[in-house]
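Q: A reviewer asked whether we had any structural model of the full assembly, not just the individual parts. We don't, so I'm hoping you can provide one. Inputs are below.
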Amino acid sequence: MSIFSDPRISEALSHLADYLGNHVRVSVAALTLGLVVSFPLAILARNRPVLRGTLLGFASVVQTVPGLALLALFYPLLLALASLSLAWFGFGFSAFGFLPAVLALALYSMLPVLRNTITGLDGVDTSILEAAQGVGMTPRQSLVTVELPLALPVIMAGVRTAAVWVIGTATLSTPVGQTSLGNYIFAGLQTQNWVFVLFGCLSAAILALAVDQLLALIESGVRLRSRIRAALGGSGIAALVAATLVPTLGASQARYVVGAKTFAEQYVLSTLIADRLRAAGLTATTREGLGSNVIFEALASGDIDLYVDYSGTLWANQFHRQDIRPREEVIAELKTMLAKQNITLLGSLGFENAYALVMPRKRAEALGIRSVADLAAHASSLSIAADYEFFSRPEWAGLQKAYGLAFKTQRQMQPDFMYAAVASGEVDVITGYTSDGLIAKYDLVALDEPRQAIPPYDAILLLAPKRKDDQALQAAVSPLLGRIDIATMREANLRAAGGGSASSPPAVARWLWDKIGTR
Amino acid sequence: MSDAPLITYTHVRKSFDGSAGAGRVVALDDVSLDVAAGQFLAVVGGSGSGKTTLLRLANRLIDPDSGTVTIDGRDVRSVDPVSLRRGIGYVFQSGGLFPHLSVADNIGITPKLLGEAPGQIASRVDELLDLVRLDRNQYRDRLPHELSGGQRQRVSVARALAARPRIMLMDEPFGALDPLTRDALSDDYRNLHRTLGLTTIMITHDMTEAILLADRVAVMHAGRIVAQGTASELADSREPYVAELMGTPRRQAERLNQLLPGDAAA
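A: Here is a predicted structure for the entire assembly that you could use as a starting point for your response.
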């Protein structure tokens, strides 16, 4: 059987125009902005040692900030700016998606352009500079007719480096809401769809190489004074940009945008919701792979229309509550607090996706551990692994305090790999999620937590302020409320993590609807 | 020559920042010098004697700390440096050709800066290639790296002459060439100097070349002009450094006479 008959390939291909188009647009915009800013700065700074040191220092510092963090930082920054602009000038702008991605990537592209422009201009032989002066050139004429052409190969090398960096880093703009080739990678990692991951990596690499070669063609064209080469390179890049605009112009704008965070359950639920909206005759699309901090703000500012969050997450992270209350009280209180921001808590889906301490069933039985309280006695000789955020969340502090937990070592891991790690004995305990199907698959057990240090995590459906009174929307999604129990969600999640062709979010969403819709 | 001097240096001093810890290095120490219109002056001296500094003051590549440089009676500091330089030809030690520009573009650069029409520049370039004896069709579109050292210096002379200057400043123009090429180029330039009615200041470290080419020679040592005059005037100088410099061409002449007895008559 040919690998091309794998349905995951055709599914990947069906997204290519959208993902690649967005990727090219955000990269080209960022690179253009980066060049427009750094090029004049480099020329201004080359004979000014203080400015030059400051600029290069700043650009180097920016470069050391990991791309993901840089992108994520721009979101709250722009959000604050947008609300200021709304208050002062009466108009706001979307701090979601394109804008933060372009700004962060432009910043990222600055170092190679600044450094190479300055180095290239510095490298021009002083005797040539003196000759330029001697034949009667003004400093400006010397720069334009002699220095820049001679520094061009070094400058273009910088531009090419910047282009490759920007195209590569643009895959990380998915969590701030900018669709990119990163959507393949984030979705693929979450749903263990390695075809998607490879597809995303390869297409980003091919795009980077193609743009690099086109820029090289332009450079050699300018250097060898070959108009044909320069024109070929230039029109290549223009064609690339134009080609990515075509499908977007044709596509109609979907009316409803369903958000999803970065894990499989969210991919399945957002697809399910979008399916329901379409079934009710509404146009809908999903925006996946959004960061946990980004998604709530995106809803509050209307960039997405609805999504599924978890009561405990909002309770602890959004409203900074430390107290532990029963499930119903938490939901009721959240409803009131969210209403103040005009956000509608439509209801809960019926299952909880809470944090739980998880270990292999046999190991737990052998050690006589049934609850977290039992675990505390053994903790000093055991290791624990959790996702990237858990150890800095209030729940972890609460657990440690309530049970006097102190592990030998603690590690952070990509959530998808934690279950396999604990099953193989790589670590002894993990903080899993109660709705995760892998708990059953690997024969693990979620330990009882009698002192209720971890708040409840009911899956709840949130609507953006502008959808507060949208009857059509509410009628379309209401059939999902209270219908998904923990066992069903676990099975859906297990299917989504299966890695086969039946594990794509649309397939699982269809399975899930069949299961609950017919009840 | 009875004309008023065209270029005058009056009590010129110039010093530079030395390398770390060396303090100020005096390049020119109270230098006064007249160059008459139409004269070919050679400035001879060792490295660091201040001869290049002297040259660069004339077209304001640098300005003096004190004293004045005048051209045609006008202090050069009262003239815009850019237009001053466009009116003076300058030939650099290593040619100073722009490596990314063709021979024609190098030669035509100053007329272009002066805003002359492209057609006019093209015919001027061909005229100059003839003048420096380079085949116009063969060399016009070449890049500097495709030329020999001698050809490069010919282009460099052509470029300096492009805007029809009255004054030529030449910084060791033929120093790096092989003897045959150097001889041919020197002769050709000497003729150009005469036929175009130029006033030339040429820097060299070679007393023989200075004597053979120039009307007058100025000898520089440690930032001062220690002697100036025609070759025979310098031969009578009692300045020890001048005597030392004059010794070289003398010894060369004697030695050549001994070695090539037949040739001298032929």
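A: Points you may want to mention in the reply: The domain at 355-446 of chain A is CATH 3.40.190.120 (D-Maltodextrin-Binding Protein; domain 2). Chain A has three domains: 3-250, 256-352+459-517, 355-446.
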